[in-house]
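#help-structures

NK: newbie question. if I give both the sequence and a SMILES, will the prediction place the ligand too? trying with fe (ii) ion
OV: yes, paste both and it writes out the complex. here, I ran yours:
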Amino acid sequence: MHLMTFIAVAQPNVFERGLVILAQGVFFNAFFVLYLFAPRTAHRLVGYFEEEAVVSYTAYLAEIDRGGAANPPAPEIAIRYWGLPVNARLRDVIVAVRADEAGHRDANHKFADALASARRTTRPSPAATTDGRLGGAQA
Ligand SMILES: [Fe+2]
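OV: that's the protein plus ligand as structure tokens.
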């Protein structure tokens, strides 16, 4: 929904839309491979991407508040999706999107932590022998 909202805001031309589709195609395939082989890293990566999105949207809000960026009426698609007031502005949309991104950040870091925890509990200790008994010095 974020992409659809900002397409409604920015109204990219055909070339820009092509670039978005190309970037999505590259990212989807690269991320698919990453997730297959390293799901914990994939979730951590998305967690960091989402954190950067929160930082960027915060900077965007500051720019609007400073008067350096436009604050047009919110697009209809955003008003319907987030249940915003009919007179909502772009700033209201960015606040809603930033909240989503913060949730995505937390969820992805939580998944990465859970996968790391599961990995720690299922891995044999380096001190364990192959049959599961503790090795090392004999008492
Ligand atoms: Fe997100």
